[in-house]
Amino acid sequence: MTALQRSKKRIIVFSGIGVLVLALVILVILGSKRETIVPVQVEKVQRRTITQIVTASGKIQPEVSVNISAEVSGEIIALPVKEGARVRKGDLLVRIKPDLYVAAVNQASASYNSARASLEKAQSDYERVRQLYAKKLVSESDLQAAKTAYDVAKAQADQFKAALERAKEDLAKTSIYSPLDGTVSKLNSELGERVVGTGLMGGTVIMTVADLTKMEAIVDVSENDVVLVEIGDTAIIEVDALPGKKLKGIVKEIANTATTTGLGTQQEIVNFPVKIRVLDRIDELRPGMSVTADIRTETKNDVVAVPIQCVTTRMLDSTGASVRNEVNSDTTSSINSRRHMEKPKEVVFVVEHGKAKAVPVERGISDESYVEITKGLQGGEEVVVGSYKAINRDLENGVTVKIEKARTPARGS
Prior knowledge:
This protein is an alpha+beta fold. Helix content is 28%, strand content 36%. It has a six-stranded antiparallel β-barrel with strand order 2-11-15-13-12-16. A four-stranded antiparallel beta sheet has the order 3-10-8-5, with no helix packed on it. Strands 7-6-4-9 form a four-stranded antiparallel beta sheet, with no helix packed on it. A hairpin with a 3-residue loop joins strand 20 and strand 21 (370-375). The longest helix has 36 residues, at 99-134. The protein starts with a helix and ends in a 10-residue tail after the last strand. The model is unreliable at 325-335 (pLDDT under 50).
């Protein structure tokens, strides 16, 4: 093969490679300009009734519950009630051995009687000396001494009288009676057990008497939700131990101080206890049962609403158009776009003539499925409700969409 033939062959080979490269470049350019079509599901915006609900969990407790504690120390010699027993106000609950307290009363009574006798004598002496002083038969110092003796005797009599009253009160405390009509919900002590009276550490809690006809749910509401709850809000209460039963309730009390768990850790939780009166009387309710309460904080009728998943966030420029986050940060267009961008705004995507349009909206209250739109929609628009990927990533202003299957709106509550 001559040099000329080899040269012609190389030219042909390189020309072929050039044609192939040019064809690939053209294919890439044409492929990049191919219109993106995003499949979506849509739903027409309707007006509906929305009830905002705050959900919280907690425990059932009686509205009125009294701990019966020993106020004096001693051995339990009578315990006529059992746990679960019904009691009436004034019924005997506990009797503590009274021997020591009877002796204390007798001793205090004797001391008081002696003091009274001394007082009577001192009073008689004082009256006699006062009469003599009036007749100038005794000196003023004699009168003053008689008056002092009388005052001392009176003070001692008062002191012994107070001691006698305390001794009688302690004796009375050896018998404990029910302060209300209710049920012995918890019995901690037994017959023959020795209990400790009220002191610095508090007396022994012998039992708890509660009115089980009036129950309440104490639930923990998060710090973000408690601002939505008001006294008088209605609630639906579900008790774990009573599946299928829904009880009506009403908020009666909201704590002013939070309870915090996991303080100083990543698992720190701040809740506010909320008391809900149970309006339905259910005999199966027991203190300590676990409950979940749906508190209905607000209801709005005939408002524009969309499914909750419709609302997403986008960066919008000064014209209201959404800006893709994927713009190269080194390009001039990216710098100019960032100059005109505002803070991320909440939007919904409306389908118009086969295109997606980002519409800024303002939201109001929401329930489990729908959110109120207070600004941005009028009703009747077709909004994108799916897929999640389309709403949160793929859709931008002007993107062509393909409606896969129109969604049938759920009936308003």
